[in-house]
């Protein structure tokens, strides 16, 4: 049975993110290789992964993006981040199943909303949100209903939908 995963802020090809976010890698190649390995250890070919922005810093290098996508297991849907500059059609041509600026899915807790920038989450306060963008912040402010699924706080790997829901349930007890 296929699973659903979420991730954000992979920043493939971005050497400076190692310094900016204190990532435990010496080089961009080491970082990219580890991100791919960690992804493929968790995600099977028939799983679905929502990439909630900032897939790559090779912003306009569609060949680079396509090559990375081919190395990653699963079907992939992109929710655009602030560093995703290509057109939606280019991302689909590179290998994403679909591209959105916002997306929501139904879960046992109700709707789970996905957007890259957590500032948007305040619009529908009280709903469950997953985001990225903030790198090393696990939660946004006092809200127990906004979770960062970015690699910097999720062990450099996608997090399963089940883990996301458990995190919300544990925080709201």
Overall description:
The protein has 173 residues and is an alpha/beta fold. The chain has one domain (4-171): Purple Acid Phosphatase, chain A, domain 2, CATH 3.60.21.10. Helix content is 28%, strand content 20%. It has 5 helices and 9 strands, in the order E-H-H-E-H-E-H-E-E-E-E-E-E-H. It has helices at residues 16-20, 28-42, 62-71, 88-94, 161-171, and strands spanning 4-7, 48-51, 75-79, 98-100, 103-107, 110-114, 128-131, 146-148, 159-160. The strands form 2 sheets. It has a 5-stranded mixed sheet with strand order 4-3-2-1-9. It is globular, with a radius of gyration of 15 Å.
Largest sheet: 5 strands, mixed
Tell me the name of the CATH class. Answer: Alpha Beta
Order of helices and strands: EHHEHEHEEEEEEH
Unreliable parts: none
SS field, number of helical segments: 5
The tally of domains stands at: 1
CATH T-level topology: Purple Acid Phosphatase, chain A, domain 2
Helix content: 25-40%
Kindly report the average pLDDT value.
90
């Amino acid at each position: 049975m296929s699973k659903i995963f979420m991730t954000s802020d992979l920043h493939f090809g971005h050497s400076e993110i190692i310094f900016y976010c204190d990532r435990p890698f010496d080089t961009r190649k080491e970082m990219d290789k580890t991100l791919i390995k960690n992804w493929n250890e968790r995600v099977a070919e028939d799983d679905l992964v929502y990439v909630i922005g900032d897939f790559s810093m090779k912003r306009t290098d569609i060949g680079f993006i396509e090559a990375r996508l081919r190395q990653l297991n699963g079907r992939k849907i992109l929710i655009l981040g602030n560093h995703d500059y290509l057109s939606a059609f280019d991302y689909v041509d590179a290998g994403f199943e679909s591209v959105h600026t916002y997306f929501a899915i139904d879960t046992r807790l109700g709707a789970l909303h996905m957007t890259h920038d957590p500032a948007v989450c305040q619009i529908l306060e009280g709903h469950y949100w997953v985001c990225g963008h903030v790198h090393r912040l696990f939660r946004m402010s006092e809200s127990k209903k906004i979770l960062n699924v970015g690699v910097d706080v999720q062990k450099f790997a996608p997090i399963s939908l089940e883990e996301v829901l458990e995190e919300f349930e544990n925080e709201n007890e």
